[in-house]
């Protein structure tokens, strides 16, 4: 009888643990809504968390770190066992430290949480490769391998928000392809030219605060009236779709580009940019299947909370040179990388077939 009672007690404890685990709360803090992908990511994260039996809440920080910190503190007050954080800037450190003191699992989502040693996990795409793909689309479209210094191609450079660590990887990935063409003289940079993001002064001159489309448009207008006034641009390195569309809007207002636009890169496969690509305006985007990223982030949280070995289908643990993607400046966190895909007019079906758009949107792209 004692053995039976002991077995029943063990089973009851295990069952109660499982119930408690499935009722655990995951707080999801996304940075903003003006870049469409973040609203989609937030909704997807919540859905995947709930499918695994967790309670979940998502909040958007409106590009205001103080506001996001309030959201995270609210999650902690509600007893969150895990946080998934797409941070705005390093001002998030104080609440991440609070989470660490409460032994809450923190997962940096698609953006490193900089200058913090108070968390252990980061999940993102191979963001250096994102930049490589953007540059390769420009390389191919301009046929740079056959270009000559006697007839150089003209390019101007844009970068993302200087408060987003990914912006540096995007740029450095792109310049690993474009830099040698600049060095050989077959590609001329119009405007500021940081060879890498390590040139912080010049990087700041091409950076776009908060990934703001209006800021990018104004800078493009200033370039067209300034450094690019007496040249015809062949390409613009744009780090994402929001900026690409703003840049194209400025270009289309200039008589020089009304019949032929420069090659403009992008990222995120936003629907409006997919339409632009179909219409022959924006040249390329980089598709990051953020639904898979969201699903993988919740799987990571689930496995860590349950004390399981982390195994995420389609993701690799960053190692070697890629390990620096997980360098917060205070420690190197475990970083799981998913692969991005270059999309041009020739393969627009890739995000469509992945179910990335609504049925109505997909119909417009078929």
Write the layout of secondary structure elements.
Layout: H1 2-22, E1 25-30, H2 36-51, E2 55-60, H3 65-77, E3 82-85, H4 93-101, E4 105-109, E5 121-125, H5 127-141, E6 153-157, H6 165-184, E7 187-189, H7 200-206, H8 213-225, E8 235-237, H9 241-252, E9 263-264, H10 271-278, E10 285-287, H11 290-305, E11 316-317, E12 334-338, E13 341-343, H12 349-353, H13 359-365
Parallel strand pairs: 1-2, 1-3, 3-4, 4-5, 5-12, 6-7, 6-8, 8-9
Antiparallel strand pairs: 10-13, 11-12
Shape: globular
Give the number of DSSP strands.
Answer: 13
Helix and strand succession? HEHEHEHEEHEHEHHEHEHEHEEEHH
Give the terminus-to-terminus CA distance.
Answer: 68 Å
Average pLDDT across residues?
A: 93
Strand content: 5-15%
- Low-confidence parts: 5-22
Under the CATH scheme, which class of the largest domain? Alpha Beta
Largest sheet: 7 strands, mixed
| Number of domain modules | 2
User: Please, how many helices?
Assistant: 13
Structural class by secondary-structure content? alpha/beta
CATH topology of the largest domain: Rossmann fold
Q: What is the CATH architecture annotation of the largest domain?
A: 3-Layer(aba) Sandwich
The percent of residues in helical segments reads 40-55%
